[in-house]
UniProtKB/TrEMBL annotation:
Organism: Pseudomonas umsongensis
Pfam families in the record: Phytase-like
Regions that span the bilayer: none
Superkingdom of the organism of origin: Bacteria
Protein name: DNA topoisomerase IV
Signal peptide, first to last residue: 1-20
């Protein structure tokens, strides 16, 4: 009996070992340092037509159009008029801490993500205010009218509870009527709101995912340790939601309705090569665009130098995985 039980356990472990395939690695095509960002701290990327745009979490009055090409890129500042921020329903404690920190670090609005719809509208998320700014191709900017139910439901689900761990990214569908938001960490989560006649609101519930816990940094990370699960940005492509899972050094494809993970790809091999490492004990990638040919990933280095001395923000271009982003495991 004992021998049979031992053999059964051995077979089970063997089958688990065989089925546990390593996460496929993405291939780096190019690397671009970015000049011209007044506040540095590249914290989001978006593709609007043929143009790439970015934001800094230190700048409240401008976004940036990226002049791309070989080698280093230049960020051209584009001024934006920002009206007073509406009350999103965040508690006074979180709002007051954000206000105080703005005098130390700069950037009261703390822009942490940017996305575009097919009409060329750009949307920027303010982490400190849990609000979304719409910047049309022409005309004045305005804050989306978002139902306060969203923040209440998020906090009831364990999201948006910690200072500097609120909304870290966003994505919108091409039609511009569905918007996904990523709550950063402890707990991390994904929310979906839809445009109604006069307000953006939940449709049977805003929270698609709320989860806590920790996961190990990749083996390529020096002195790897368990870190809180987090989201750093979102990208919508081909009907799917792609999440930048910063501490795991992965891009994951998720169902846009259920937020269920379908497949993940790692960029740790390239990002953690010795010359590209930063002294911080955590990951610094904060921006994501996924398209048919590959992915853009942006690094917010907080003006710190990496091992090779580079102090500017970085954007990497990775090739699409073999079989494309829709490939099954």
């Amino acid at each position: 009996m004992r021998l049979g039980f031992a053999l059964a356990c051995a077979l089970l472990l063997t089958s688990m070992t065989v089925s546990a395939k390593p996460t496929p690695q993405l291939r780096l095509l190019s690397e671009h340092a970015v000049d011209g960002m007044r506040g540095g701290n590249l914290s989001g990327l978006a593709q609007c037509g043929n143009e790439l745009w970015t934001v800094s979490d230190r700048d409240d009055d401008q976004i940036y159009r990226l002049e791309t090409g070989e080698g280093a890129w230049h960020a051209e500042a584009v001024g934006i008029g920002v009206p007073p921020v509406p009350d999103s329903g965040l508690p006074w404690g979180l709002r007051s801490r954000a206000w105080v920190s703005s005098f130390v670090r700069g950037g009261d609005l703390d822009f942490e993500g940017i996305t575009c719809d097919s009409a060329g509208n750009r949307y920027v998320v303010s982490e400190s205010h849990a609000a979304v700014l719409q910047i049309p191709p022409t005309g004045p900017t305005s804050w989306l009218k978002i139902s306060p139910i969203m923040v209440r439901e998020a906090r009831a689900s364990g999201l948006l509870l910690r200072f500097n761990a609120l909304f870290e990214g966003l994505a919108i569908n091409p039609q511009g009527d569905q918007l996904w938001l990523a709550a950063e960490r402890e707990s991390r989560g994904l929310l979906l709101i839809k445009r109604k006649q006069t307000v953006w609101d939940c449709d049977g519930g805003c929270v698609l995912l709320s989860e806590g816990g920790k996961e190990m940094q990749p083996a390529q990370f020096p002195s790897a340790r368990a870190m809180p699960r987090d989201f750093a940005d979102l990208s919508w492509f081909d009907g799917k939601l792609f999440t930048l899972e910063r501490n795991a050094y992965e891009i994951c494809r998720r169902d846009a309705v259920t937020a269920k993970v379908e497949r993940c790809w790692s960029f740790a091999d390239e990002a953690l090569q010795e010359n590209r490492r930063y002294p911080q004990g955590f990951a610094l990638t904060e921006a994501l665009i996924v398209d048919a040919e590959g992915a853009w990933i942006g690094v917010d280095n907080n003006n710190g130098a990496r091992a090779d001395g580079e102090v500017r923000p970085i954007v990497w271009r990775f090739a699409a995985p073999e079989g494309g982003w829709s490939a099954k495991p």
